[in-house]
Amino acid sequence: MMRKFFAQRRKKKTSPFSQHMQQRQTPELTLSPNLADNLELFRTLLGNPHDLLIRTFLIGNTNHTCAVIALDGLADSDMLHNQVLGHIQLMISTSEKSVPPEPDEIIQLLFEEVLSVVEIKKETSLTAALDCILSGDTALFVDGSSELILIDSKGWKTRGIEEPVSEGLVRGPRDGFTESIRDNTVRIRRRVKDPNLRFESSWVGTRSKTELIIAYIDDIVDHEMLDEVRRRIATIDIDEVEESGFIEQWIEDDFLSPFPQAHNTERPDKVSASLFQGRVAILLDGTPMVLILPVTIGLLLHSPEDYYERWIVGTLTRLLRYLAAFFAVFSPSLYIALVTFHPGLIPSDLAFSIAATRDGVPFPAFIESLMMITTMELLQEAGLRLPKPIGQTVGIVGGLVIGDAAVSAGIVSPVMVIVVALTAISSFAIPSFQLAIAFRMIRFFAMFGAAIFGIYGVILSLIAIMIHLSNLTSIGYPYLAPLAPQMPRDWKDLILRAPVTFLKERPQALHPEDEIRMRTGDSK
Amino acid sequence: MSAQTLSEKMISKNHMGINIASVTVGVGILTFPRALAKATSGFDGWISVVISGLVALLIGWLLAKLAARFPRQTFFDYTAIIASKPVAYALTLLVCLYTMLFVSFEIRAIGNIAKQYLFYSTPVEMITLSFLLIVQYAVAGSRIAMLRLNLLFLPVVLVVIFFVLVFTTQLLEIENIRPYFSSSWKSLLEGSKAVGLSYSGFEIILFYTMLMRNPEEGPKAMLLGLFIPVSLYVTIYIFVIGVFSAEVAKNLTYPTIDLAKEVEIPGGFFERVESMFFTIWIMTIFNTCVMWLDITILNLTSMFRKVKKMVWILALSPIIYFVAMLPQNLVDFFAFADAITYFGMIIVYLCPICLLLIAIMRGVKGHE
């Protein structure tokens, strides 16, 4: 029902890409030939800000007034000095060329000969010029002309490239994305020197006008999927977009699902590998988090390191991770089920010792687990927000509270502490933070199942989760591919990680246009 | 959603085979050695398993042929083409009744077995109800996603049964399986009839062929789909008789689960393996159950196109639940099961074969 509602909502908002680009807030304003009028207009439109730089000057030895407008800090002032103002003043006064009398001819001369800047264009629309100035360009006016020249002078301070904090690796490149979208596209280009790499630029947010880039490799990506991504992005209609999370939530298939339907990463190597697999990446200005679409369960449980290490290591690590996924979701519920309903399933010696340790505990196993798991969630959340030095204190305090004091106070049993520790460690072993969060939510669901129906409840909750996952799609692609639907060819890169020489094809699950990765016959 | 191409909403030959295997392997496999041991009084029961498997294959092949004649058409549609609309309405309604009763049977079976092996004080009503709710949830989603669950669960179940068999190998006693070939033909046929119930399910090909990419591959899918249960049943029967002897097997309610009971995992990590075994087994019973309910809904919506799927699910569930709660004890319950099967033999085997004959005689064919 909700899905249908959502589909209708989408349909209504559907608009082609080009149309979307024209949805501007302010009505279209054109330039007047009078310089003073233009400058005044700019001042009023921007509310006469203190960081607006306006410099008027006379060109050469003539009486033609010119002006440059830029925003302080956004535009590179060195460049304005040397390549723009310097050139205009110097070249025109020293060269033998006489300055033509007509303002439009002056513009032409500046455009073609004087300005030594790579990215430069002429513009007649004032609104468009305003947008460009707001994103760091410089506008050059000549009195009497109703055209202006826009000079690309973007140059503000950005953060340096650092190692991604949220996705550490032992082996692998150390660079991460930054907040500047230009730096990010560079990081991808550096890795993908394929002429078919495409960056489709547009903007989202009617007020924030945040730049958004859809990256893909033209002859690998499934174009049907690409069109769907474009269509969904075109429906985005909000005034401001700070982070790629907005995009993710807007274009996801099922907003009721606890599972992430777009993968975010700050690792350029992960993005480039995904592009080569036939996925699409969405970069947004102002955030280092790049979205990868579509998501399959494999993408979330695999780490780039699986491929960098030798295949035996990669395979075993993956097995470990799948096991961790199971423990992260089901270990507290299995504890509840076994202790409360089926002590007979535990070997008798162990059952006796568990019973003995639970002797003084006043709560049923379910309440006990609920308390401990909630405490662990609290600790995790608290540790996340605190500055690093204090974070360690939380770890120690939490560790002591969970580990020792709770047991000696007789609130929980020692076995429970082991279960909680196992659960926590397992969920940290999941490479995708978003998936780990999903598991944390499902864990409670399974615990309720176990509290009501014991191990029968656990298997029912497992079945329910599988039903959900089987129904779930990401940009229309089945989430559980290549398991269901079955694509046996992809299985060598699912739980197994076959030696790289065996991975001759791209994942079938993504319908790549070009399926073959290795063309030069047998690799051996 | 629109990015998903049509071909991906269809199912392949192998997938269809796995669907058939999943729907066949259900509750029947847990009980059939008892009925078989009773009928044939000995190891020779495996011949009965094969005989009834071959009969099932023959029927299944005919059903697949029928469905393949009318690609992309529902059971109701092609019955209407072959034998007029009123007949189609009557037959499809009967089929719905049959499949619905089957759902009742399966959910009650879950309740009974869970009660016996997992719970002692939880009422059967609650166990059954919770299972029915999960089944509803699965059917409420998309049909292809529901069928994909078979791909996920069947391998797990097969691996578990494989482990059980491996660990019981040491308990096999050759004495138990002697004498060979001592049963009369009559008792073997009697046995075949007894195993018959455990094979019911392959008739889903009548309804799901319309989802197949290449409907003409239906007969091959049937071969794969029945090969898995036949080989599984033969192996399990041999093991049950080998471990317990025919005399004991006759008196066990769920001999296959009791086989798991005998398993001792080295290291003593688990005790009472039969509980774990049954817990995993719920997955395949779930698959069977979901497909039956889905077919009921599929047939109903093909007849009454205006009524939404969700309405049928919500309307049918109380009836299914009520019927499931009717049998008062195990004797009633198994009598109920037998009654459904005989009813089903006429409705989904005999009638469709007649339809096929009529279709061939009249030369009716579907169009792509």
TrEMBL record, chain A:
**One Gene Ontology cellular component annotation held by this UniProt entry:** membrane
Sorted keywords for this record are: Membrane, Transmembrane, Transmembrane helix
Entry keyword annotation includes Transmembrane helix: yes
A biological process (GO) of this protein is: spore germination
One Pfam family named in its UniProt record? GerA
Query: Where are the compositionally biased (Basic residues) regions?
Result: 1-14
Domain of life where this protein originates: Bacteria
> What residues form the membrane-spanning segments?
280-301, 322-341, 417-437, 444-469
In residue numbers, the region (Disordered) covers 1-27
Q: Does the keyword Aminoacyl-tRNA synthetase apply?
A: no
Q: Where is the composition biased (Polar residues)?
A: 15-27
Concerning its family, UniProt says: Belongs to the GerABKA family.
This chain belongs to the protein called Spore germination protein
Gene source species: Brevibacillus parabrevis
